[in-house]
Each structure stands twice: as C-alpha cells, then as structure tokens.
Specification:
Radius of gyration: 15 Å
CATH topology: Ubiquitin-like (UB roll)
Pathway: Amino-acid biosynthesis; L-histidine biosynthesis; L-histidine from 5-phospho-alpha-D-ribose 1-diphosphate: step 3/9
Oligomer: single chain
Subunit structure: Homodimer.
GO molecular function: phosphoribosyl-AMP cyclohydrolase activity
Strand order of the largest sheet: 2-1-6-5
Number of domains: 1
Structural class: mainly beta
Protein name: Phosphoribosyl-AMP cyclohydrolase
CATH superfamily: Phosphoribosyl-AMP cyclohydrolase
Largest sheet: 4 strands, mixed
Keywords: Amino-acid biosynthesis, Cytoplasm, Histidine biosynthesis, Hydrolase, Magnesium, Metal-binding, Zinc
Number of helices: 1
CATH architecture: Roll
Length: 120
C-alpha cells in the first residue's frame, strides 16, 4: 500500500521523533525531529533531512559538516508516532564529533563518558 505521511501521528507542533541507526552495525546514532516536509524530502532525495526546532527550518544532516546520512530504510513504529531511520553514516553523527549522541552512560549512579570525540 502506498505511504501517506498524513497517516503518521505527529505531536501538536506537527513533529515526530526519528531515531537514526547505523544500517550495518545497528548502533543507535542520534534522535532528531521530522515533519511531513522533511520526511518527503528525505524519501525523495535519499539523504536524511530533519526539522530544526531552533531554526524552524529544514536541516539536511551534514549540510555544513559533510557528515551526511544516506537513508537505507525508514521504518514506522506500531503506534505510528516514531520513526526509525536505517542510515549509512559518513563521519560522526553527533555535533560533539562523536560517532553517536548517546555517549554518556549511567553506571552505579555516575555519568560515564563511553565514547571519545573522533579526531580528524
């Protein structure tokens, strides 16, 4: 059946959370927001485009850093209120220059940094 972006359950701001996961390794890379326009753009171009809440505009991942995400597959969760993006990630996914935004673990009540920044 053809995909209809209107069938997704967006929040009151017209946004839906999108989790980016490495297509090859399964590593969770980041979470960002999408709207119907960014979803359509991503599906059309094949490079992930999010919605920037701070800039209130489309944000093509890697447009300034070169750390692009090529979409391999988009999945919709059972409630249709969250997306999973399976991507080929070029360079680090996080703006802190780490492979993943999830680089802080909670261990025995302490925050522990488990990923170091990637050096160029």
């Amino acid at each position: 059946m053809p995909f209809d972006p209107a069938s997704l359950r967006y929040d009151s701001n017209g946004l839906i959370p999108a989790i980016a996961q490495d297509y090859q390794t399964g590593e969770v890379l980041m979470m960002a927001w999408m709207n119907a326009e960014s979803i359509a753009h991503t599906l059309e171009k094949g490079h992930v485009t999010y919605w920037s809440r701070s800039r209130k505009s489309l944000w093509a991942k890697g447009e300034s850093s070169g750390h692009v995400q090529s979409l391999r597959e988009m999945r919709i969760d059972c409630d249709r209120d969250c997306l999973l993006l399976l991507v080929d990630q070029i360079g680090p996914a996080c703006h802190t220059n780490r492979r993943s935004c999830f680089y802080t673990a909670l261990r025995e009540g302490d925050e522990v940094e488990i990923l170091s920044p990637i050096e160029d």
